[in-house]
Each structure stands twice: as structure tokens, then as C-alpha cells.
Amino acid sequence: MRNTVSGDVSDGSEVVQVGTVHGDLVLRSRRRRPSRRAVPPRPEWFDRARRALEMRLCVAVVLLIFVPTELILLGGFRPQGASDEVIVRLAVDKLRLCASEIVPAPANCPQGAEAPGAQTVRWELVGDPGDAVVVKWRHGSFRATGKAVMVLHYDTALGGDRTVVPFTFIATGSWRGGDTRIEYMEHIDAGFEEEKHGFELSRTAVAEAIRAGFALCTEARSSPMPAGCPRTTHTPVYRDVDWSLNADPLINWDMRQDETTGLVVVLGNYSLALRNREEVSARPPHYTLSGAYQAMLIRAEDGSARLLEIKHLA
């Protein structure tokens, strides 16, 4: 008589199968496959967010393919018929208009300077203010940013004086075809480092301009010397005097070309002697004006070096 037994025996992780082969009892072991857990359905907001992201990616790809890169970087689109060149020209015209003002800090203009005791004031726009101007567009409006240099000329009770005023400006407005104009212009303090081009001066040209400037200052027959020459708050007031250099002001000097303003700045040392005209030149001077100086120059339209001022440094 033969008994046959079959079935499974399990301890939860391993299954033992019981059976017979040719009358013999056989146990076979096999691993139980873990049961799959049910995955909960995704919430609706997840699908909506995914579709929105896919749509934005598609729009970004279309912009990168069909829209000029510079328009994306500028943050907007130029209206049809608009151009950066027109806006730069309008900005320069506005600067020229501001240069016609006769006050030290005119309203609706970007320039301004302190001129204590000024009796008459005149502004002068120098250099190339239209160079390195950056124009940005947004929804038909524009914003032009650049750097310019003006010279403030003014008279005081002690004579004429001047100061060089570099500044950063912004000009804004909306494109209206032939009626486009600068609606607002002001000075800003934020850093603007766009570099100008073609303003460089040779070291030889700069040295010649500074020597000529000091020679012109020593031709003065009064004290203080004329506008653009070095002076201090302690410079005495005299008439009928002679000025002379005690040494070459270019013995030890350094030159720096400022790419953002277009100015060439020179640092050096000087010493000037003041004598009454009736005094013998061999006698000690009545007064000595000396110290470090800063000279500021700019490239003129004909390419020559124009000396704007020689300023005494405290």
C-alpha cells in the first residue's frame, strides 16, 4: 500500500513543497515572491503642475530658436522701426540741452557740482557721451544708460574756477516713432562699467599737454592762478606777481586711462614759486605752492590731448 502526500509548508518567507517521486517523499524549497503594494493614484495638482512646466519649456525652446538672443537678454522687444541708434542720439541731444543750463545743479538733468560763491556758471559737454551707451527695451519703453563728462566753469570773487564732473546717466521714454523723445533723465550712483572706445592718448601727447598747461599757468600775473590751474584754500591773493616752476612736474608721474569715462588721469608732483614782480628772482619766493597734483585730460575731436584741469591734491 503506497501513501501519497503533497502540499506546501511555509514559514512566511520560504515555501517547502511536499511531493513524491517514484514513491519517495521529496521536499522542494522555493522563495515566496513578495506581493506588490498598490500604488496610490497621483493627485490632480501634480498632473496640472507637470503640464504647466512642459508648456513653459516649450515656450522657452521656441524663444531660443526664433527670437534673437540680444532681445531676450535685454528683457524686452524693440517696437517695429525702433533702433538703439535713435535713442542714443536723443540722449546726447538731451545732454547738450542740459549743458546749456546756467546753474550748478540743474533740475531734470544728470549733472551737478558744488560751486561755492559762484556768480556766473557755464557747463561744457566734452568727450563722446554717445559711446558705450546701453539701451534696453521693455513693452515699447526704453532705458538708455551711459557715462558722460562735463566741465563746470564759474566765476567767484577771487576769479574764475572750474571742475570736471564725470557722471552716470539714465534716459527713459516710450517709442512714438518720429515723436519719440527723452521723457526723463537723471544721474544714478549704481555701478556702470561699459567701456568706451577710441579715447586713448599716448604718453607723449599727455606729457606735452601737461607741460603746456603748467607753462600757461605760470604766465598768470595774479594769485590765485586762472581756472584749471592748481590752487588751495590758503593760496594768497596778489596782483602784479610772477609764477615760476621750481622743478619739472613730470619727473615722477603716473598715467591711468579710465575706460568707463574716457578720461585720462595723471598723478604727479609740482612746486611753484610766487614772487612780486619788482623782486629779484634770486631772492627767496614770497610764497610756494607745492604738493601732489591730479591732471585730467580727454581726447579732443581732432585726436589731440586736451587738458581739462590741473588740481592740487591735499
Structure report:
There is one protein chain. The chain is an alpha+beta fold. Among the domains are: 84-188, Nuclear Transport Factor 2, Chain: A; 203-313, Nuclear Transport Factor 2, Chain: A (Roll), CATH 3.10.450. The chain has four helices and 15 strands. The chain has helices spanning 44-66, 69-74, 84-99, 203-218; strands at residues 7-10, 14-21, 24-31, 120-126, 134-138, 141-156, 159-174, 184-188, 222-223, 238-239, 241-245, 254-257, 263-276, 287-299, 305-313. Strands 4, 5, 6, 7 and 8 form a five-stranded antiparallel beta sheet that branches. Strands 11, 12, 13, 14 and 15 form a five-stranded antiparallel beta sheet that branches. A three-stranded antiparallel beta sheet has the order 1-2-3, with no helix packed on it. A hairpin with a 3-residue loop joins strand 1 and strand 2. The radius of gyration is 40 Å and the shape is elongated. Residues 1-5 and 69-75 have low confidence and may be disordered.
